[in-house]
Design goal:
Strand content: 15-25%
Order of helices and strands: EHHHEEEEEHEHEHEHEHHEHEHEH
Shape: elongated
Structural class: alpha/beta
Distance between the termini: 9 Å
Strand order of the largest sheet: 1-2-3-4-5-8-9-10-11-12-13
Number of helices: 12
Number of strands: 13
Low-confidence stretches: 1-9, 368-381
Radius of gyration: 21 Å
Length: 381
Amino acid sequence: MTSLPLISVDPDARGRRPSMPPRHLADLDLSGRQALVTELGEPAFRAKQVSSHYFGRLVRDPERMTDLPAATRERLAGELLPTLLTPVRELACDDGATRKALWRLHDGSLVESVLMGYPDRVTVCISSQAGCGMACPFCATGQAGLTRNLSTAEIVDQAVYLAGVAASGAVSGSPPRLSHVVFMGMGEPLANYSRVVAAIRRLVAPAPEGLGLSQRHITVSTVGLVPAIRRLASEDLSVTLALSLHAPDDELRDELVPVNQRWKVSEVLDAAWDYAATTGRRVSIEYAMIKDVNDQPWRADLLGRLLAGKLAHVNLIPLNPTPGSRWDASPKPVEREFVRRLRDAGVSTTVRDTRGREIDGACGQLAAAGDTDGDSRAATA
């Protein structure tokens, strides 16, 4: 594990009340940016120039924006590119292929994002909320509760920052360009619906309006907010839906995913199948393997019956336990038997690559540690 260089942060920021950040160009589409620049007394094309630096060149330092008049660089950058994320701790493992960042926002809120490099792609996992209100008991973020929703730009800026890390060549053995984004960090994305959808549109719009990623390389995770799933299906987006199911039966899922008390397994799966039918995209069923809780063979068989013949893929997740938690990962023989039963039922199944365990890899773990570090929060974890 490696501790990466840090930027010092304002110690008083932690005591501020949660509040939304200043407006940023990523909060606006290109026409909105042009209108803003015009209000500032500058020609509209300046918006495209600044946007090209941010999204196209991954540059936010006004001194490097040499196509802008020197007299206006600082002012335009200040109005369009205010600082949204301040690094508190950045850790690397897997020979630098996995990098986790803990950010402090302008109001002191903490969020996390992770960069994962592979031989054929670079993926970032980003947060949509500071904390989470879904209260899943095995999740570090759920245990912490919800602080606030992130703005569109705070969501996008995580991806742009880590795209810059990839472009720098810091992730050896991987392409130098970010290609995939997963909304699987802190928060329930569909509980911050309008800003998450706006962030997706920025991520997939071609530069200079956005980052130019493929819609098919964006994955949005949800615990199963049925109305929002159905709304997402009408957005004319071809992003992948990842459903955090974690139990095939209502009795257990009521405990593991409390929102199941509102929308039962059958309702959530019906919405997922409608999403798949509308978009043509296979649904990813996320299932954390928890020892002696949801890993019994009969639950594998039940899950197989629910998913057989559907446009779905099961992504089994070895649980990354949080300190002091009563939850633990399933033993490997149990995990293998679970996989065998699902595959025998004709259900495509894989086990997620377990990265980042030594850098507080579970969502919310690094934030929980950072919130208690005080002035030593920049030390190696």
